[in-house]
Write a structure and sequence with these properties.
single chain, five-stranded mixed beta sheet, about 25% strand, chloroplast, alpha/beta, Trna Endonuclease, Chain: A, domain 1, plastid, globular, Tic22-like, Protein TIC 22-like, chloroplastic
Length: about 300
């Protein structure tokens, strides 16, 4: 495909940069000893919408006034989720990992890489929070430090972990919850409104795609999904400049919104090929035209 190709045809792209180096979550969990917090309060005002959505499905009726306690989580080698195929087109664990490669999330940890959990007295479940935005995790950490001053002496910090490893872990009595970037929730709701839908909220982590963007690897085509709408728009703008075409982002309906968790579920369980051509672009990254494919 060259710059004179029809504007309705999708463009072929490649990743413009390498993903950042991440902490291996599965390795961290192999010797995980968790902080269980018996109290959680909403943190920074920018997290309010995301946390409200998160805790609507995790709402312990009462909390203990005591400080943090400790609980040990079983070795991860014995607690991996079974990704074995349930139908002909379901993706393997390895295939899902490849699609998520380089995507970071941020968790709270101490100096020994022990991950912090939120726990209620009246439930046997604990909640592990994984933020897509580093600043959100940092705000959460500061809130925890204000609640428990002794944390300030424990080397508590925010660490980046590999999202691709999160879906291989199944820890007894622990639920992992993804906290989306509140800005992207607003972007998703705006795009949904432009498409004619009226939503009061967005359940899950929003991801953005355009039918005008296609990635090609080893003679296969993939649909890139972005965790930030701005990254998708940047890719579309760059493509339009490189190929002397109208920016597809200006065309109504060219940007679509999906729920990340639903895509992953479809990859694991679907008997159709709806999601087998999806790859995820890490936040802060975009795609650029691959000259070797412009033929």
């Amino acid at each position: 495909m060259n710059s004179t190709s029809n504007s309705k045809n999708p463009k072929v792209f490649s990743l413009s940069k390498q993903p950042p180096s991440l902490l291996n979550l599965q390795q961290a969990f192999s010797n995980l000893q968790t902080h269980c917090f018996s109290l959680f309060q909403q943190t920074h005002h920018q997290l309010k919408d995301a946390f409200n959505s998160t805790f609507s499905h995790f709402n312990p009726p009462s909390f203990s006034p005591k400080g943090p306690v400790f609980a040990r989580v079983a070795d991860s080698s014995k607690t991996q989720i079974d990704f074995s195929k349930k139908s002909g087109a379901a993706l393997s664990a390895e295939a899902i990992e490849e699609r998520l490669a380089g995507v970071p999330v941020y968790a709270l940890s101490n100096s020994e890489e022990e991950f912090m959990l939120v726990s209620g007295v009246s439930t046997k479940k604990s909640l592990g929070l994984l933020c897509f935005k580093k600043e959100d995790a940092e705000a959460l950490l500061e809130q925890m430090k204000s609640m428990y001053p002794r944390m300030r002496k424990g080397g508590s910090k925010v660490v980046a972990v590999a999202l691709c490893k999160v879906f291989q872990l199944k820890v007894d009595s622990v639920t992992f919850r993804l906290i989306p970037d509140s800005t992207q929730i607003k972007n998703a709701l705006r795009e949904r409104e432009r498409a004619g839908f009226s939503d009061d909220g967005f359940a899950g982590v929003p991801v953005f795609q355009s039918k005008s963007l296609v990635l090609r690897s080893q003679n296969k085509s993939y649909r890139p999904f972005f965790f930030r709408k701005e990254d998708l728009e940047k890719s579309l703008l760059r493509a339009s400049h490189q190929q002397n075409q109208l920016n597809p982002a200006f065309r109504p309906g060219d940007i679509q919104v999906a729920v990340f968790e639903e895509i992953i579920k479809g990859m694991k369980d679907s008997s159709t090929s709806t999601w087998d051509d999806v790859v995820f672009i890490p936040p802060g990254f975009d795609v650029s035209t691959d000259p070797t494919q412009q033929q």
